[in-house]
Amino acid sequence: MAAAELPGKYQKLAQEYSKLRAQNQVLKKGVVDEQANSAALKEQLKLKDQSLRKLQQEMDSLTFRNQQLAKRVELLQDELALSEARGKKNKKSAESSSQLSQEQKSVFNEDLQKKIEENERLHILFFEADEQHKRLEAELRTRLEVLETDAAQHQAVVDSLTRKYTDTIEKLQNDKAKLEIKSQTLEREAKDCRLRTEECQQQLKNLQAALGSRLEESLCIISEKVPFNDTRSNRYNALNIPLHNRRYQLKLRDLAGQALSFVQELVTALLNFHTYTEQKVQIFPIDSATDTISPLNQKFSQYLHENALYVRPLEEGMLHLFESITEDTVTVLETAVKLKAFSEHLASYLCFLRKILPYQLKSLEEECESSLCTAALRARNMELHRDMKRLTAVFEKLHTYISLLALPSTKPEGLLRTNYNSVFTSIAASLRGSHDILKDISRHYSQKATLEQDIPTVTQKLITTNDCILSSVVSLTNGMGKIASFFSNNLDHFTASLSYGPKGGTEFISPLSAECMLQYKKKAVAYMKSLKKPCADSVPYEEALANRRVLLSSTESREGLAQQVQQSLEKIAKLEQEKEHWMLEAQLAKIKLEKENQKLKNSLSGYLAETVQERSVLPNVTEQKEETTEKSQREPIKSTSLVGMLTITTDNEKAPDVESREDLIKKHYMARIAELTSHLQLADSKSVHFHAECRALAKRLSLAEKSKESLMEELKLASQNISRLQDELMTTKRSYEDQLSMMSDHLCSMNETLTKQREEIDTLKMTSKGNSKKNKNR
Predict the structure, then answer these.
(1) Could you tell me which residues belong to the region Disordered (predicted)?
(2) Three-class secondary structure assignment of 738-754
(3) Do 583 and 600 form a contact (C-beta atoms < 8 A)?
(4) Considering the entire predicted model, what is its pTM?
(5) Which residues pair with 639 in a beta bridge?
(6) Which of 254, 257, 412 is nearest to 340 (CA)?
(7) Rounded CA gap, 495 and 499, in Å?
(8) Among 290, 609, 746, 759, which is least packed by CB within 10 angstroms?
(9) Sign of the torsion formed by the C-alpha atoms of 222, 223, 226 and 231
(10) Beta strands 637-641 and 644-648: pairing type?
C-alpha cells in the first residue's frame, strides 16, 4: 500500500512545483513591468520639473519687463507735466506740443494696456501650470508609493516561494531516500508474502473442511431450536421488550414531579382567583349584605361557587399521570394512558370557563354602567373584558394540543409521529401566550384596584378582596410562567425521548402493542425475580404421591361437591324460613307478654286474672284439663304452644298470689326468649358459614371453568404456533440452503482468485529470476 501511494505523492508534488514555477515567472514579469513603469514616471517627473523651471524663468523676465515699463510710464508722466507747464507761455507751441503729447500718450496707453493684458494672461498661465504641476506631482508620488509597496509584496512572495521550493526540494530528496529504503523492505515483504500465501492456502483447505462440518451442525440446531426472526416485521418487533433505560425513566419521573408541583400551585391560584372573584361580585358594585344584587351577578356567583368541581380534577389527573410513570415502566405517548384523563379534566375546566365567560363579561359591563364607575375605571374594565376573552381562547388552544398528545394512547392514526415536535412547540407557545395574558390581567387588576380605592364609598371589605384577587392573580401568573419556562427548557428532552422503543424499530405500532409489551415486561421481571429466589425444599416422594391421590380424588369428587353445594343451598333456604318464623314468634310473644302485663295490672281479682291469663296465654290448657279430669284430679297437666311448655296443677288448693304468678310467667318467657335468640344466632352463624363455603365453591368452579377456557385457547394458540413454526422452519431451511449454495460459489471464486495469485507470483518469480540473470551477465 505504501509503495502504491508514493508515486501518487510524487505526481502531486511535481504538479504543485510546476504551478509554483509558473506563478513565479508571472510574478517576475509583473515586477519588471512595474520597475519600467516607475522609471518612466521618474523621467516624466524630471521633464515636468524642467518645464516648471522654464516657466519660472519666463515669469521672472516678465516681472522685470513690467518693472521697466512702470518706470518708463512714470518718466513719461513727469515729462507730460513739464510740457504742460511750458505750454502756458506759448499757445501755439502748446497746441503743437499738446497734440504731440496726446499722440504719444495714446500710444503709451495702448502699449501699457497691451502689456497689462499680456502680464495678466501670463499670470493666469503660470498659476494654472503651477496647480497642474502640483496635482501631477501628488498623483505621481502616490502612484510611486503604491508601486513600491507592490514591489515589496512581490519580492516577499518571491522570497517565500523560493524558500518553499527549497523546502519541497529537500523534502522530495528525503522522500526519495525513504522510498528507496521502503522499496527494499517491500521486496523483503514480498518474499514473506509468498511464504504466507502458501500457508494461507493450507489454512483455507482446513477452514473449508471445518466450515462444512460447522454448517451441518448449525443447520441441525436451526431446524430443531431456532424460532422465527420477529425483528423483520414491525408488528412483531413492537411486542419485543426494549432495553430498560433507567436514567431516562428517572429523568422523566423527575420532570413529572416538577410538573405536578407547578400544576398544584396553578390549581391553588385558580381556586383562590375564582373564590375571591365570587366574593367581589357579592360586594361590588352592590353589597349583598345591604341590598340585593342583580340576577346576572347571582347566577355568576353561583357558577363561581362550583369552581372546585372543575379545578380540583386537574391536580388529580396530573397526580395519576405522575404515579403512572415509574422506574420499571416504559413511558412514551403510546403508553401514557393517564394523559387522556388529564385532557378530559382540562376539557371540563374549559367548559367551565366557557360557561362563566359571558356572565363575567356582562358583569364587567354592568359594573361600567353603574354610577360609581369613572371613565378610567371603565377603561380598565374594558381591558379586562378583552383579556378574559383572550385567556379563554388560549386555554382552548392548550386543550386542543394536549388532546392531540393523548391520541397516540387511544387512536394512533389521529396523530403521526412526525407531528410530535410541532405539537410540543405549539404547547410551549400557548403556555408563553397564556403567561403574557396573565401579566396583562395582573397589571390591569392592579390599576383597577387603585382606582377603586379612590371611590368615596369604598369599604374595607372591598379593599381586602381586591388585595386577595391581586395576590391570587400574581401567584397565577408566576405559576404559569414557571410552567412555560419549564416546558420550554425541557422541550428538547420531550421531543428527543419519543424514539424510545424496541431494538431494530423506532416506534410502537399501536397502544395495544405497547400494552402487550408492558405485560411481557412484567412477566419478564417476575421471571427474573423468580430465578433469583432460592430454590424451595423438594417434597418427599411419598408425600407427593399422597398429594396426587388427594388431587385425583378431589377432581373425581367434583360432582359430589356440586351436589353438596346444592344441598347446602337448600338447607340455607330452609334455615332462612325458620329464622323468619322464629322472629315472628318472638314478636308475637313480646306482644302477648305486654298484653298480659296490662291485663294483670287492670284485673280486680286474682281469680279473674288467673282465668284470663289461662285463656289468653295458654288456650290449650282447658282442653287438656277436661281430658285429664276423668283420670285423676291431682295429675299435672302440660300445655304446649309455639312459645314453649308450661306445667300447671289442677288441684283444689288455693291459687298463688297474682304477683308471684306474674313473676314466674315473666321469668319463663324471658328464659324462653333467651333460648330462642341463642338458637337464632347459632342458625345465623351456620347459615353464614354455609354461605361462605358455597361462595368459595362457586368461585372455585368459576376459576376452574376459566382456567379450562384459557387452557383451551392456549392449546389452540400452541397448535397454530406449531403449524406456523413448521412453515417458518421450511422457509429457513430453504434460505439456509440458498446461503450454502452462495457460500460454495464464494469459495469457488476464492479458489479461482488464489490460483490467479499463484500464477502472478510465479510470473513475478520468473521475472525476478530473469532480472537477476541479466544483472549477473552485466
Answers:
(1) 85-104, 618-638
(2) HHHHHHHHHHHHHHHHH
(3) no
(4) 0.42
(5) 646
(6) 412
(7) 8
(8) 290
(9) positive
(10) antiparallel
